[in-house]
Design brief:
The protein has 331 residues and is α/β, with parallel strands linked by helices. It is built from twelve helices and nine strands. The protein has one domain: Aldolase class I (TIM Barrel), CATH 3.20.20.70. Helix content is 34%, strand content 14%. Strands 1, 2, 3, 4, 5, 6, 7, 8 and 9 form a nine-stranded mixed β-sheet that branches. Strand 3, helix 7 and strand 4 form a beta-alpha-beta unit.
């Protein structure tokens, strides 16, 4: 096997990829794919807590030039934005596709079409990777699409771009399939997760999930051109009033994951969607709040990663009603 070959190709050759696709698909009959474990029979089209049935929902496909530099490179990260979500963040900037399930039903596709979209990003747009955005509730369908895409020539690294509200049982089926985990660390408190994202035990679930992701892929590794080939990247969005729990989350990453973990500190918070209903969320972060997190990063000795400046959040806000959801920008 080529050292540059993604692990899912060897899994395909051995038959293990097909076995995993079968196991994951069977679990949709009484869905326990994410931590909500709602039990819906999605095989028969019943809608689960994620507002999704059997068919994957693909809301947007394209070359994204605004991800972290190791993902976007020169040719862009090949993003596939999945519709709906297993979280309900009141400030979600992607709410057009994550929290409007009736509108998203028209974007349902079969796994064969999803496989073709992956190949389009690879062969036509020449992207550096396939970036699966909000994939947690569609893991069985994604793995089946990969199974169909490999014999057609799929060979790019896969990025699992997640809120980290993921099931350990599901993540273990992705071992060797996913090359790069791009994982949020949203809150340090279960209470904050319940209040602002309508999920139980977010802090506990996300920390356990991130440990499993790190076990699989380790610290970030890049190729000779500086493009990610393997590893974990943690995104931490700074929220107003310390809601993100940076003072707890960042030291936890250093002590429990790795001092060398790659961390992307994001200052782009904008009070989108229903944030206006919450006084504490109805504003951008202040320069002082940003400087405080920057100082914490420095004190902890975190040297791998990126820091967004305090430029206008309009540079980062998508519009999924447009052909190109994201404004042209460089991170």
């Amino acid at each position: 096997m080529s050292t540059n070959e993604p692990g899912y190709i060897a899994l395909y050759r051995s038959g293990e990829l097909e076995r995993r696709a079968g196991r994951l698909g069977a679990r949709l009959a009484e869905c326990d794919i994410c931590p909500r474990e709602c039990g819906a029979n999605r095989v028969k089209g019943k809608v689960g807590s994620c507002n999704s049935g059997y068919l994957p929902i693909v809301s947007s496909v394209g070359a994204h030039h605004g991800e972290e530099p190791v993902l976007s490179g020169r040719r862009g990260s090949g993003t596939i934005f999945f519709g709906n979500c297993n979280m309900r963040c009141v400030y979600c900037q992607n709410h057009q596709i994550s929290q409007d399930p009736e509108n998203q039903q028209r974007y349902e596709v079969g796994t064969a079409v999803l496989a073709e979209r992956m190949l389009y990003l690879q062969d036509e747009l020449k992207c550096h990777n396939i970036n699966l955005v909000t994939p947690s509730h569609f893991v069985p369908q994604i793995v089946k699409a990969i199974l169909e895409a490999v014999p057609m020539g799929l060979r790019l690294p896969l990025v699992y771009n997640t809120s980290s509200y993921d099931s350990l049982k599901t993540l273990r089926e992705l071992d060797g399939i996913i090359s790069i985990y791009l994982a949020d660390l949203r809150y340090a408190s279960n209470e904050m997760g319940r209040k602002y994202s309508r999920v139980r035990h977010y802090a506990d679930s996300s920390r356990a999930a991130i440990k499993e992701m790190y076990r699989q892929v380790g610290n970030l590794e890049v190729d000779d051109e500086g493009i990610a080939r393997k590893g974990l990247i943690i995104r931490h969005l700074v929220l107003p009033d310390g809601i993100a729990g940076s003072e707890e989350s960042l030291p936890w990453l250093v002590s429990e994951i790795s001092p060398g973990v790659a961390v992307s500190i994001m200052s782009q918070y904008h009070p989108a969607h229903r944030a206006y209903k919450y006084r504490e969320l109805n504003r951008r972060i202040s320069p002082g709040e940003y400087v405080e997190v920057v100082g914490l990063v420095e004190r902890l000795g975190i040297q791998n990663g990126w820091m967004q400046g305090m430029e206008s959040p309009a540079n980062y806000l998508p519009d999924f009603s447009a052909d190109e959801p994201f404004p042209a920008r460089k991170r």
